[in-house]
Design brief:
This protein is of the alpha+beta class and about 190 residues long. The strands form three sheets. A four-stranded antiparallel β-sheet has the order 3-1-9-10. A four-stranded antiparallel β-sheet has the order 2-7-6-5. α2 packs antiparallel against α3. The longest helix is centred in the N-terminal third of the chain and has 18 residues. The site of adenosine-2'-monophosphate has 6 residues, from β3.
Length: about 190
């Protein structure tokens, strides 16, 4: 409990966590852009693909989050995602790795989690799911158009079999993520 008598809270989200090979490639792209154009690359260990951003919840609601995750994991198969596009977001000063076409099984996993959380009374943003991995923040320079084709001919193929619940905390060097749970997808 905190001083105002409310349960302590955590800022949480569900995500896919890349395997080592995929993580290395994503980090290499982030570093390459940062070296040439500036910005702050996401630390290698924090790279992830958000499935559902839940936001601030009381710690007493973690069992509900875990129940939703368990239900969805059982009912949903693993799959793969092909990251073949880089996107620059000038407003957010971010560089993303993303898919030209969102894989339907990945969309179904994100949607399944979303529905299960809503059914358990969690409040979620209406923002549509866009599969992406943020590589670089604080990028103030517009990358040359050709640079954004870096993954076109050598896409990153990411096979996922599980997903995680992460707690985000602000640190001096940016956000740090603490794993609160991991679930293996069924049907593999
Ligand atoms: P981003 O990388 O595009 O910023 C933790 O913040 C993760 O949740 C990030 O992957 C972030 O996406 C995503 N996210 C989605 N909605 C968010 C929100 N309203 N606030 C913070 N992060 C959000």
């Amino acid at each position: 409990m905190n001083v105002v008598g409310k349960p302590d809270g955590a800022r949480v989200f569900f995500a896919l966590s890349p395997g080592e090979r995929c993580r290395r490639r994503l980090f290499a792209v982030a570093n390459d852009f940062a070296a040439r154009l500036g910005g702050r690359p996401m630390p290698k260990e924090t790279l992830h693909l958000t499935l559902v951003f839940v936001g601030e919840v009381g710690l007493d609601r973690l069992p509900g989050l875990r129940a939703a995750a368990g239900e969805v994991a059982q009912a949903t198969a693993g799959g793969s995602v092909v990251l073949n596009r880089l996107h620059h977001h000038p407003a957010g000063k971010m560089l993303w790795a993303a898919s030209e076409h969102c894989s339907p099984p990945l969309g179904a996993l994100a949607e399944g989690l979303r529905r299960s959380l809503l059914a358990r009374g969690f409040t979620l943003e209406a923002r549509p799911f866009v599969a992406h991995v943020t590589l670089l923040r604080r990028l103030t320079v517009r990358p040359p158009a050709g640079d954004l084709d870096a993954l076109k001919n050598v896409p990153i193929r990411w096979r996922y079999r599980d997903f995680v619940l992460l707690r985000s905390r602000s640190g001096p060097g940016g956000s740090v993520y603490e794993p609160l749970g991991a679930w293996t997808l069924g049907g593999n």
